[in-house]
Amino acid sequence: MSTADLPDLAPFEQAAAKRTEATTGGETQLVTPGEPITSNTAFMRGHGTYVEEGVVISALAGVVERINKLVTVRALKARYAGEIGDVVVGRITSLAEKRWRVDLNSRQNGVLALSSINLPGGVQRRKSESDELRMRTFFAEGDLVVAEIQSLYGDGAIAIHTRSLKYGKLRNGTLVTIPPALVQRSRTHFYAIPCGVDVILGLNGYIWVSKHVDPQAIEANPEEVYSNVNDPITAEERTNVARVANCIRALSRQFIHIHDTAIVYAYEASLRFPISDLVTDSVSSEIAMEVRAKLQS
Amino acid sequence: MSRQELLSPEGLRIDGRRANELRRTVCKQSVLTQADGSAYYEQGNTKVLAAIYGPREPRLRSNTLNDRAFVNVEFKVAPFSTNERRKRSKGDRRILEIASAVRQTFESVIVATVYPRSQIDVFLHLLQDDGGNVQACINATTLALIDAGIPMTEYICACSAGYIDETPVLDLNHTEESSFETPDLTIAVMPRSGKVTLLQMESRLEITRLEDTMLLATEGCKQIQRIMDSVVRENTRDLVEKYGQ
Q: For this UniProt entry, which segments traverse the membrane (chain B) (predicted)?
């Protein structure tokens, strides 16, 4: 394709202007791999694009996005790519020297360094060799952790930390896996649902649903941070956890973004169905309809 | 095999197609929920399912490449895919050959350098075999990779062509392929730049006929690309609607 028949700056700018004036119904430019985006050399190529003979070409099927002079293409379905400060839920896969490897549903395993965890009891000191030998007493293979992304390595690997009482080992609950695109960044990712259930929305698509634990109780008893034993869970708490977990599964099947209000609405709508039916197509679409109607009102 | 008339005097082939006609092509993306990307591809009676997992942590340490992603292709033939029900072992040479042809084709087009120390797994299942397995596998993989959001410089489309009684014919089916007198070749091209990533031929073809056979196959690739592109666009539009902004 010659460069002459490509859109120039002007229509591109117009499209951008349109997008700002109507953010919801704005014009979205869809591209497929190998499709030229612009031949204007004023633009810089971003993720999902490459340059050939001065033409910016898409490498993905997705939506064209523009920030100032940077042109990127965003694929709708892609693996989780971390950003510093994201709250994630992960599973310990192996132990290495002074660090744990953590499955974060990303393109590589994440790394949790021994130096970026809190010691039980909140003791502040450098980690010694004896701590290194006791690593399995903190986190062992298969344990689930909630953590924050501390930094990203040059090759895209993620380093996480648990240096806060909010973060650490997970217990008293169940894991739900959904597409990462359905979880959006927000001020908090820790929610207490009124029915006595806590939900942690990991940005990597791993969601932890557990029985409610008073945050003050954790602070009062910092020794228990690395406990492997569940607290006593009543039958009612257990069914509520299961119901909320299945509500989240139902919402994700219907492509509704997961956040606290959506979960509460879905929980209310689900009460007239048995828990095991929530993941069926007919029930989940019924719930989704109710949730969508409530979210819009 | 008894001599069968592959091309009638009226210029029709055994399945009623003209010489330069493709078989009916149907494809669909996002058919599996567990996989990162998936596609179903059907060309005539040849049916392939492709699933992509990754980029993810390499399963083996030895597969870790420091500068790019490792691409792994596994191809399986369903026991019920042919007339004669037969279980194929994993080490079957023909199967391994197709898998490595697909891998080599895509290594040149996947922008693997953006995923160092990762692995991209491609799993291909042949559900029904009516000739043209390599082309169906390549086309299904293209669609599944696009669905998985893995960057590629452009589409790769593959198509086969052969020669029956002095006439170049497009997209051979199983009967035409297995006839001794029909030379056939499979070509995989990038339709926009016209680059060839795979050219496979296992029989003798007169050199003077190579060029028009290749041209015909390339023309078929372009037709397939148009079909695939419309499917990809529709699927992307659908995903934009589902996942929102």
A: none
The size of the A-B interface in CB pairs under 8 A is 103
User: Which pLDDT band holds residue A154 (cuts at 50, 70, 90)?
Assistant: confident
What integer pLDDT is reported at residue A256 of this predicted model? 93
Q: What CA–CA distance (Å, rounded) separates B76 from A9? A: 48
> Which residues, listed in sequence order, are joined to residue B159 by a DSSP beta bridge?
B187
Name chain B contacts of A48, Cβ cutoff 8 Å: 151
Domain ranges of chain A: 3-75
Please answer whether residues B194 and B16 qualify as being in contact, where contact means their C-beta atoms are separated by less than 8 angstroms: no
The pLDDT-based confidence of A27 (bands split at 50, 70, 90) is low
Residues A116, A122, A127, A129, CA torsion sign: negative
User: CB–CB of B36 and A108 under 8 A?
Assistant: no
Q: Confidence band (pLDDT; 50, 70, 90) for B28?
A: very high
A165 band by pLDDT with thresholds 50, 70 and 90: confident
Contacts of A1 in chain B (CB under 8 A): 192
Residues in chain B closer than 8 A to A33 (CB atoms): 146, 151-155
Beta-carbon count within 10 A of A247 CB = 31
Q: Please tell me which residue of chain B has the smallest CA distance to A154.
A: B116
Nearest alpha carbon to residue A71 among A44, A41, A39, A89: A44
The whole-angstrom separation of Cα A99 and Cα A102 is 10
Chain A contact present for B67, CB below 8 A: no
Q: Give the model's confidence band at B243: pLDDT under 50 very low, under 70 low, under 90 confident, else very high.
A: confident
The 3-state DSSP class for residue B49 equals: strand
By C-alpha distance, the chain A residue nearest B142 is A33
Q: Are A215 and A117 in contact (CB under 8 A)?
A: no
Q: How far is B130 from chain A (nearest CA, A)?
A: 29
Q: How far is A126 from chain B (nearest CA, A)?
A: 31
**β-bridge partners, B170:** B161
Which residues of B are less than 8 Å from A79 in CB distance?
Answer: 36, 54-56, 149
Contact across the interface for B146 and A32, Cβ inside 8 Å: yes
Q: Do the Cβ atoms of A76 and B240 come within 8 Å? A: yes
Mean pLDDT, chain A, rounded, equals 88
Does the structure show a pLDDT above 80 at A155?
yes
Chain B residue with minimum CA distance to A110: B57
Q: Mind listing the domains of chain B with CATH numbers?
A: 25-243 (3.30.230.70)
Domain A3-75 top-level CATH class:
mainly beta
